[in-house]
Amino acid sequence: MYNQKVLEAFAHPQNVGEIENPDGEGTVGNATCGDIMRITLRIENDVITDAKFQTFGCAAAIATSSTATQMVIGMTVDEALKLTNARVVEELEGLPPQKIHCSVLAEEAIKKAIEDYRAKKENKTIDKSKIEYV
Amino acid sequence: MKVYADHAATTPCDERVVQAMLPYFTEGYGNANSLHAFGRDAAKALADARDTVAKILGCHPNEIYFTSGGTEADNWALKGVALHKRSKGNHVIISSIEHHAILTPAEWLEQNGFRVTRLPVDSTGIVHPEALEEAIDDETTIVSVMYANNEVGTIQPVKELAEIAHKHGALFHTDCVQAIPYMNINVEELGADLVTISGHKIYGPKGSGVLYIRNGVKLDKLICGGGQERSQRAGTVNVPAMVGLAKALELSRVDLDETNKYIASLRDHFEQRVEAEIPYIRQNGNKQHRVPSVANYSFEFVEGEGILMLLDFNGIAVSSGSACSSGSLDPSHVLLAMGVPIEVSHGSIRFSFGKHNTMQEVDYIVNTLKQIISRLRSMSPLFDLKKGGTYNV
Questions:
Q1: Using CA atoms, how far apart are residues A114 and B45, in angstroms rounded to an integer?
Q2: What is the pLDDT of residue B321?
């Protein structure tokens, strides 16, 4: 079902974990759908210098989390916002059709983490930004 | 190490079964319906196979119909009776934990104007006879409840269910595909009018199945064509497959109790270790009323596919939920019917042991499983949350 590249990314995922006091964080998905992805970012001068993920989900969700975090490290936040799930899938050389939705989560989690970063930067309160995730 | 722990999905073909089948590919290849000697030889082999199956099920040989497998037999029983008895009533009753070979034809019947009731199960996966009493009415023509469930292994009170069906003038069908490897099935004692069995769950060949139809029970044909199987199931009979099914069934009755005890000892050892060594788990199924082979667990905070694949990387074959639903994203309908929370059901794995497994293999599975679960949990935001994480999801 999965190609070798996806299997490899799933078997040896990169950037697993959580950045302490991240500059941006985003959690998307829900447990009943069987997919939750949380991404934390370290951002210096609008450049993503580190990204880590935690994922509850299938092999495709874990593989796309790993690949997406690898892709955004080194990108500016503007560049990272343009990262689409299609690009992540392309990087993985394809996913089975029923698993494409898993790759959307990675895109959404990164966008949410960057929104969080921008909100913090604009001095919006942390509490307010967290309400969105409830 | 390679370990096969997915015997509820299929079993390896017994070498003796293969040997029994082989001559009918290249020597006894006649069409069992041909009048010449080649045909007669094939017909003789088929008749012998039918006699063997009938003897084991405690019925007359002319009540045994060979099919392409369990799925065909299930489809035939449910659709065949419902369609044939449409003038009597349009109500069909199944359980909510049936195999897709019953669930999907029931949906088809629903789309074609039939009323379908799906009986609930308790939290251990048992259908209670009271639920059938409540659901059945004068319009009900057939009740179909599996003898043993394929995902959690629970054994259903089919005898009582059959009595209730008969009391209300309905026929009773039971899918015995998962029960036949471990249980003696006598159709008279069971009181079933229609019974499905399959060859490949009992170390026999794939593509072989049986529908027992009690004499006098009428149902519409599913497959129309030539006059095979007493004109009830068309198509040249797959003689080697049916010879194999009969041989496998015969072999499975030898030392059945000892084999069951051995398989149960493997499963019990597995369960004891899993329950003692892996936290945050849920055992699914009924520990009293079940077949000896199946252990089903939900591992909280992780997803079943990941577990399955990492076990596979380590040479271990298991199933996540129902193997048949691997193409879909929906969690197991069986676990949901049992009330397992949807997020927990995503992390469910079925281990099903067989007569060739060893204690050493069971220990290897548990040791590997422990590492895999803790590794996946270390990646899971839900597990962090459980440990007292600060963010909301």
A1: 72
A2: 64
Hey, what are B383's tokens? Answer: 């597990």
User: Is residue B242's pLDDT more than 60?
Assistant: yes
Residues 6+ apart with CB under 8 A from B177: B70, B99, B146, B150, B196, B197, B198, B201
Name all contacts of B22-28 with Cβ < 8 Å and 24+ positions apart.
B22/B240, B24/B239, B24/B240, B24/B243, B25/B240, B28/B239
Residues of B designated as active site? 324
A-contacting residues in B 323-352 (Cβ below 8 Å): 327-329, 331, 342-343, 346
Listed in sequence order, the residues at least 6 apart from A132 whose beta carbon sits closer than 8 Å to its beta carbon are none
d(CA B193, CA B187): 8
Chain A partners of B343 at a C-beta cutoff of 8 Å? 31-32, 34
Whether residues B313 and A11 touch (CB distance < 8 A) is answered with yes
Q: Give the domains, in start order, of chain A with CATH numbers.
A: 4-131 (3.90.1010.10)
Chain B residues with CB inside 8 Å of A53's CB?
Answer: 379
Residue A7 has phi, psi (to 5 degrees) of: -60, -40
Output the pLDDT for position B216. 97
Give residue limits of the domains in chain B.
Answer: 3-9+255-386, 15-253
Neighboring chain B residues of A57 at a CB cutoff of 8 Å: 303, 306
Which one of A7, A32, A54 has the shortest CB-CB distance to B384?
A54
pLDDT in tens, B326-339: 555 678 999 999 99
CA–CA distance from B260 to each of B4, B257, B294 (Å)?
A: 17, 5, 12
**In chain A, which residue ranges form alpha helices assigned H by DSSP?**
4-11, 59-72, 77-81, 85-91, 100-121, 126-131
Q: How far apart are CA B269 and CA B377, in angstroms?
A: 24
Task: Evaluate if residue B176 carries a pLDDT over 90.
Answer: yes
Q: How much is the mean pLDDT over chain A?
A: 90
Q: What is the pLDDT of residues B352-385, one digit of tens each?
A: 999 999 999 999 999 999 999 999 999 999 887 6
Among chain B residues, CA nearest to A17: B379
Pick the CATH number of B3-9+255-386 from 2.60.40.10, 2.40.50.320, 3.20.20.100, 3.90.1150.10: 3.90.1150.10
* Helix pair angle (B304-313, A4-11), 10° resolution: 100
Interstrand relation of B316-317 and B3-4 (parallel, antiparallel or unpaired)? parallel
pLDDT in tens, A47-87: 999 999 999 998 999 999 999 999 999 999 999 999 999 99
A12–B contact, CB cutoff 8 A: no
Choose which CATH entry (3.30.110.30, 3.30.450.40, 3.40.640.10, 3.40.50.150) describes domain B15-253: 3.40.640.10
A25 touches chain B (CB under 8 A): yes
**Residue labelled with tokens 């929370």:** B341
pTM for this predicted structure: 0.92
Q: State the DSSP string of B71-82.
A: HHHHHHHHHHHH
